[in-house]
Amino acid sequence: MILSVRKNITIIANLLDTEFLIKLSKKNLVLPFYHAVSDNDLIHLKHLYPVISVNRFKKDLDFLQQKYKPISHINLFDQIFCKTNKKENVFFLTFDDGLRQFHDVVAPILIERGIPATCFINSAFIDNKDMFFRLKASVLIEKAQKMQLTRSQYSFIRKLFEQHNLIFHHPVDLLRISDNNKELLDKIAPVIGVDFREYLAVNKPYLSKEQIANLIKQGFSIGAHSVSHPYFPDLDEDAQIEQLRQCIHFIQREFGINDRLFSFPYTDFGIKKTFFSSIKEDVDFTFGTANLKTDEIQTNLQRIPMEIFNSKSAGEIIKTAYLLYILKMVFNKHVIFRD
Questions:
Q1: What angle do CA 89, 56, 291 make, to 5 degrees?
Q2: Per residue in 276-292, pLDDT tens?
Q3: Which of the 8 DSSP states describes residue 159?
Q4: Which residues are CB-neighbours of 107 under 8 A, at least 6 positions away?
Q5: What's the mean pLDDT in 77-97?
Q6: First CA to last CA across the chain, in angstroms?
Q7: Which of 21, 141, 238, 267 is a plausible cystine mate for 322, CB 3.0–4.6 Å?
Q8: Torsions phi, psi of 70, nearest 5?
Q9: CA 219, 308, 137, 178 torsion-angle sign
Q10: Which residues contact 175 (CB under 8 A, 6 or more apart)?
């Protein structure tokens, strides 16, 4: 039902002019975000979300550059707080998770086009010292599907799941594992012949310190994405603040930069006003993933996910986001209010 409604909204949105939607919504800043761009089969992402191809990414940029002017984080303050009726239509581009493709694939494309961007990284994964547990799950799913689990392997995994009140029927059920029981993945890996250390060493999914330093030299900004990518709504506020501060301070210390940007891992849903009050001396801007919305915390900016609907173009995704925002305005649902 929801997908059907969204499909109809997309059809209507595509009939409308982008400039008309911008004027009607009064939202002349859009914040598209991605994780990875690649033409290769990235096993660690394969079972999590679509990986945007190079050609699709370039077409996305074609649309964005045609309709908007690219800006860097340095321009955000004026864009948000400067009271003027002559603001340009602009976009601020970001990438989450600090994946290697930002250095190898994305950066050269952006440099050629003169587009700034910010890459948000998890400090625990730099230099491929460790891997986000959901990436581990994707690697295990791929291996389990290709090898076909034996009866004993299946029984071992099923019993592990039952100990944590989980049900295991198929390898994709490994995505049921959460931050609270992520150690299960490390127990399952050797049983089906996966060595995560070897995978990290061979595939190097994450940026190295050297690559990050090179990106900074090229003019890209680096932001914090927490230490280990936990689900923030499940953490108490002190733990949330610690994850943010540790990551930001590490980046500033390690790379000698003063950028104070933070993107929430997963989502900023349910994050309270007291959190934002506590971290205001640590960050300039924070970023959520709630699509095109206004946040009552003016320095917390909501971004548009560009990978969920892989079959849709940037124009379709962004114009749909605009029309949804305008429809929500009618019912005063376009603003995120916080406790």
A1: 50
A2: 999 999 999 999 999 99
A3: H
A4: 215, 218, 220
A5: 86
A6: 30
A7: 21
A8: -75, 140
A9: positive
A10: 47, 48, 134, 137, 141
Q: Calculate Rg over the CA atoms of the chain.
A: 21
The structure tokens listed for 47 are 């079972």
* Side chain identity, residue 219: G
Read off the pTM: 0.95
Task: Please compute, for residue 50, the number of CA atoms within 13 A of its CA located in the half-sphere on the CB side.
Answer: 13
**What residue has token string 């997963």?**
266
Token couple for 5: 């409604």
227 C-beta neighbours (distance < 10 Å), count:
18
Q: What backbone torsions phi and psi does residue 285 show, to the nearest 5 degrees?
A: -140, 145
Kindly tell me the burial class for residue 102, based on how many C-beta atoms sit within 10 Å of its own C-beta (0-12, 13-18, 19 or more): buried
- Tell me which of 3-7, 19-23, 28-32, 91-95 is least confident: 3-7
Contact indicator for 129, 208 with CB cutoff of 8 Å: no
Q: Which CA distances in Å does 98 have to 4, 144, 183, 227, 258?
A: 34, 27, 22, 12, 18
Chain centroid, CA 296 distance in Å: 21
Structure tokens that stand for 196 in this block = 């995560």
* Spatial distance between the Cα atoms of 120 and 99, rounded to a whole number of angstroms: 9
CB 140 within 8 A of CB 177: no
Give me the DSSP letters along 211-263.
HHHHHHHTT-EEEE--SS---GGGS-HHHHHHHHHHHHHHHHHHHT----EEE
d(CA 249, CA 215): 18
Write down the number of H helices and E strands in the chain.
15, 13
